[in-house]
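Example: Helicase POLQ-like.
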Amino acid sequence: MHYLFIFFRQNCIQFLKMLQNSNLSKADQINKNSSKKRNLGINRRSRFSLNKSFNTNHDFIENSSLTKISSQSNNNNYETTLTRTTANNNTSIKKKTGKSLMNINVTSNKDHDKSMKLEEYNFDDTLCDIPYEIFDKNDVTLCIEQSQLKSNCIDGESDESCSDIIPETPNQTISTHDQCFSSTPLFLMNEPNFEATIISSQKNLLENLNDSNEKILACLNVTELSSSANSNNEQSNNDTFYDLPIGVRDYLFQIRGIKSLYSWQKHCLKLSAVRKRKNLIYSLPTSGGKTLVAELLIMKEILKQKKNAIFVLPYVSIVQEKVRELSPFAVEFNFHVEEYAASRGILPPRKRRKKNSVYIATIEKANAIVNSLVELNREDELGMIVIDELHMIGEGGGRGALLEILISKVLYKFLHVQVIGMSATFGNIEELKTFLNAELYINDFRPVELIEYVKMDDTLYEINKNSEELYRKVRTNISSALKAGDPDHILTLVLEVIPQNSCLIFCSTKKNCESVALMLAKSMPKELMVNKKEERQQLLDLLKSTISGVCFTLKSTIAFGIAYHHSGLTMDERKLIEEAYSSGVLCLLCCTSTLAAGVNLPAKRVILRSPYIGNAFLMKSQYKQMVGRAGRAGIDTSGESIIILQQKDKVKARELLEGPIGSCKSSLSYQDGKGFRHLILTLLGLKICMCLNTMESFFKKTLHYIQLDDSKKSTLLDDISREINHLVKINMLVIIDGEENEDIQLTSLGQATYKGCMDIDKTPFIYEQLKHALSGMVLANELHLLYLATPVDHVENLYLKWMLYYNQVNKLNPINLKTAEFVGVTESVLSKKAAGKRCSKDSFDEFIYKRFFLALLLFELLKKKSVLQVSETYEISRGFLQNLLVSSISYTSLLIHFTEISEFWVYKILFQALLERLSNTSSIELAPLLEIPGIKE
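Written out as structure tokens, the predicted fold is:
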């Protein structure tokens, strides 16, 4: 057993035992030599008396617990009592009269989280509930309020041996004079003249009782208390689990195997912002368990508040993964999960009478949901919006600007909605806190320890950021025999962990992913082919059965448990490979950086093939995201990351590792104010602001304004006026003089741009193309419509092989050639380009030629040709082809809204029919993924 003794020198200011268990029903008297009560001075005006009694044979130890604290003032009569309410097992503090008596800080270090502050309570004249924290028996120690502390032991114990107080140390004294810190705090003391000792045997207990000249305040059986605390688990009473049905806890274990929450998760679910439904930002490293907290908060909002929620995720693949994960909970607890990604999702959202919904959406779709609710005055249906990867607001492009616009609209129009932001750590997170008017919670918790390494030449160094020497040499001569094609000794680094454990290799390009996978497969020991041979053959058979077939690289690598993972894979291929890796059939993935930001696929070891993504050097946020995949919670005790460096990158790499975390800056001003213009159109389209003054008020609530220098804040009105004038010039706005203020209104082009959420710079081109097509559209087949529905964003990334293009156009029938000529594609220009000749700008618009080439790809898919067939014919990667199809579906959905203006009335019917054709094409391979209970209602 272990016993906690509290000794006091001089006057004690504050002491409160914060533990709830079944024994909190008995108050004992304490007195070392007699039954006389000892009064301990609190301050000049009031005094505490904490009393406990025991007999000389120390039988009191078995049932000792402190339940009552009484206070008497010299000037006022008031009493503060620690009581236990049996109705819900919550401990409460009630103060009858007088001023605020004390503050209580309770901290927990469970799971090696030494900086976590659980909660602060200010006691005033009201009755306030104090939630308790669950501790294992090895977690029950004591806590000093000071934060910069170190251990100090008695009986000659070293500081190191005192790191875990209860298990290793027979006796330990902790004193604020010595600036000490317990590794796992449970109790709070705030007094510069106090000392506390943990004693692990009755012999030492008697010695301390007999030898001490200090006043004994309390003696507690720590082992008993911890055991009792464990029995309560995470629930605040027998019927709920953080205000959710207790079945949610049981279902988490049944579906996901989660037995207990991490300490930081428990704390986060008890924060003031959660209890009071205020905005919250919480920031942790990758794989820290952020998403589970978000899911519990969403279910609480739906089941308790009876409101809908939006869960904003950055990518379609993550949306689909989250839909699959939450759907079983929706079926079990009677709510809807609705997917809003690509072409999925009804706008406005369907009204539900009996069940509430969580809309799992990409940034673009979440913005459309919010717009539709504002247009129909349905703001009261929404109760919560959760944003994953909140730091994407500063990514500097259109998506970052759109995310800021989305959040700003919610803060301005949905005053009752709780905004929850999840993010990786970044330098200026306080500015995000101000923007959201949110409570901020930051933690560096990782479920497993991360050990970071750098490899240069044949030497491996451990990264030690807390030392003057950043690199500590671990070993040399990593590979004695240099194998051809593997100058970086990747094979050696991989074989140290596979096949027993898993490994990820991040490569700078898609081509490099495939070449590294092939190189490793050729060099692997043949014995590895025996491991999971049948399962890997089944995987190959499944890949062959997909509409795209299986490529040569995967045929060669899967037998060794190796595959590649990048955007060149089709959705079916990607899903099968991810499932095989998660189940252990595959033990090694060569992947691009997109995997780090996508679905959760952790590994024992993560290898960064180089510090580059494409030609750009890694940013710290990207590096953190990649190495954050190292370590599998519940499987590994630690994870490892190795970044391979060349000597030329040594200086940049040091800056990467030692440099500060990057800042998150507003993206509204990207591309010379494009985000500004988008926001202005949105505010006018939703009728949130109709004049310059109200726009200025709205802009002052944006992150952009918060981050402006004081000198630039004074010019905000001029900046808005400048962008409005620009929109007037491109025929998107018109200014109407009124009696008092100038009203600003959208033109038909501006209305179409707002409705279709189109890129402002590309809208004039789209508008002119649609208008031109009305004069001679070829409707004999779908090719002309497909050209109009080809997303303009894909055009920029396309590299044309002109000879191949020329040959394919020569095979077109007269009807399709007529379409080509109508949009501006001629055989004469193609023949010149195929021959390597230049064409004048007047006769050649490369953008149109690229767009028509993409339309030909879609036309082939619409004719039921497989992805593999089309990719081989046109020499385009399978993944690009399928991404084009999915993007075309999304773009067609936007065109339906874009063409709501009267002059384009006929297009709405045509694009709706085309959308149905595109969505039902067999090449998209989506139907099986979308037939999930709870989303197709």
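Residues 674-746 form a domain with the Arc Repressor Mutant, subunit A fold (CATH 1.10.10.10).
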